[in-house]
Amino acid sequence: MKRGSALIIVLWVVALLSVLIGGFAFDMHVEAKIVSHLRKRLKAEYLSKAGLEYAQALFIHSQEVKGKGDSDEMKGKYWYDSAKRLRQGYAIMGLTVKLGEGTFILDILPEPALRNLNAIKDDEDWDAIFTVGGVPDDINLRKELIDCLYDWRDPDDDRSTDGAETDDYYARLDPPYKARGHKATVSSKTSKVMTPDKMVNLDTIEELLLIKGWSHAILYGGYAEDGDTNSAPMTGIADLLTVSPEAGETVNINAASKRVLMTLPGIDSTLADAIIAEREKGGRQGLTGGAQISEDYFYTDVNNLFSRVPELNRLTAEEQQRLKALGGTASSVLRVRSSGVVHGVEYRMTSTLGVTASGNGTAQIRK
Length: 367
Prior knowledge:
By secondary structure, the chain is an alpha/beta fold. It has 10 helices and 9 strands. The chain has helices at residues 2-62, 72-75, 80-87, 123-132, 139-153, 216-220, 258-261, 269-279, 302-308, 317-326, and strands spanning 92-99, 102-110, 115-116, 241-242, 251-252, 327-328, 333-342, 345-357, 363-366. A hairpin with a 5-residue loop joins strand 8 and strand 9 (363-366). The longest helix has 61 residues, at 2-62. The protein starts with a helix and ends with a strand.
């Protein structure tokens, strides 16, 4: 009897120890996984930073590249094709560089390749942007969005027909807040507040979410109403817009995506494809991997665009005039997204690069 009791006690002790040891081993396994992930994440972060430095180097070299007159020695540099592409106003998408046990992936997009939200003046332009973004073709909805945006930006408190001002809408919310342009005054120290006859600029694309009628689905895609799966989902408009003050009103036709091109006057899917096909003859779109530009196919100006894409001459006179006014090729400011990847762990960073004239007359790269 005593031996049986002792055996039972021993079995209970062994079982208890097994549970304790198993729990300890599990904790060790989880902690090891966490430490491993954090280590990879730290490496991915530094790879991402290396990518930003690499992009800055490409931008600096792009200021040195001239094109056909470049020496054979310069053309043999590892950075030449990418720097040349930036010089010509192109975008670079998915440029992958292996470094150590990981890689960094660069997307470099000229800011003028997007529509400058703060520079859009015509309702027709907004209508084209809404169409590309899949916003329902509802005149009342689109007019409300545009009127509320204008009321948000203007310095007066006079509500547009379908708009909203601080006193009659935003001040009554919980919590209340003021429209961006509410009683704005002229200031010479900041570019955020403009003269009373003009609009106040938005600082970020996400600021649109503060404006009446503007939703997350309109900006980033999704259904107009939660649970409404009967209608087609919106694709969003955030990828079409920028608020960079240096982007200007014109759109860089050498770097603009198909969706951005389709927001320009008279440009449909077929014409956008034709524009991209003509400018990308020399290499794969985006210069991913080791693709090279064998010849110079970038558009030198809007007139060059019309001469090389004859289908554009079929547009109406008004569409041609507006397209020539909005089309450009300049890109002095770049948006850089760098993704560091180590064994499946990714870390992303974004930055902007531009050129600033210094006091001695030379150009300096700024971040």
